[in-house]
Amino acid sequence: MPPRSHHRHRHAFTLIELLVVIAIIAILIGLLLPAVQKVRDAAARMSDQNNLKQLGLAAHNFAGANDRLPGYQPAPSGSSVTSYGYSVHAFLLPYIEQEPLCKTFAPNTQQLFFGAAPFGTLNPALAATAATPVKTFLNPADGQDPVCTIMSGGSPHAGTNYAANIGSGLDANDAASNPQKSNGTDLRFPSDGLFWSGSKVKLTDISDGTSNTLMFADIMRGPNASLTGTPLSSLSNDQRRRLYASASSGRSPVATAPGGLNPPLTTTDATGATGWTGNRGGSWIWGQPYTNGFTAALTPNSTTPDVAGHGQGWFTARSPFAGGVNAALADGSVRFFRDSISVTTWRAMATRTGGEVVNGGDY
């Protein structure tokens, strides 16, 4: 009898077994993705905090070299575009290892805009500089393109996610009767914050204490597109945080200190608006409240939108992180401020000489 051959038969997966394996893999991926996202979020938050830390240290180094903090730079004397000066950020470039970019322009002598306000033209010699993104000025958690093409001046500008503290945002003449009137952001006049046009605040001028005074805070860049005929109810939550309301064009700037608009802005101008501007944080080089400044009129990530008329209004600290914003303080530290912070405490943190008592447990 011939020897019996022994063959091992290889069994293929049955359909049920294959489905079970696929289901297991899907479950593992489902468990892994949130963990990966948390790691990414944590890395973005750390990068954001590091950027703010660098800006705070840069401001201190500037102060060490110049015996004062940088300020928003007014346009040259005699210029018709008096509001078109350089930003605080422009003066910090040498202190954040951006010397090559800094050498492409001369903020103390080179005019940024030509022509008459409000539609001046960006100096063509500065077009490449203005459109150059600076990594330290950008929050990696913000998914917007860093270059904004709808800025005044007819040229693209590279934006920023970090805004300088231009004060509480309250009209000093009417804060008591209506705390939502936020017209103290006219940079032509001194504010109760750290930065305005021509400001020369020294660290020793911060009598409230550098550990109790905001210097820079997160903002979210606009979507680089504006909307018309769109009520607030039609905006998504993300749009509400990136766009600011365009107040009535019939408003006229007040030309005497402390600045502001007449009639003054109220929250109705924001909640009842149908026109929205999308260039918030749209320029690191141009010194305007909506490009790279913030006020403490509203708490971080407020559900009330920002609003502006003639470049003035309230511009709120906002971030893509859940629950609050990161901010650099005048002592060089960086802290996370929750959305639930009281508006009184938040405004106190924005003033340099308000005399308010701020406890760490308040935020």
UniProtKB/TrEMBL annotation:
Bias type Low complexity, positions: 266-277
Stretches for region Disordered: 243-278
Keywords for this protein: Membrane, Transmembrane, Transmembrane helix
Residue ranges constituting the DUF1559 domain according to the UniProt record: 37-342
Top-rank taxon, per record: Bacteria
TM region(s), chain numbering: 12-36
Name by which UniProt lists this protein: Prepilin-type cleavage/methylation domain-containing protein
Species for this entry: Limnoglobus roseus
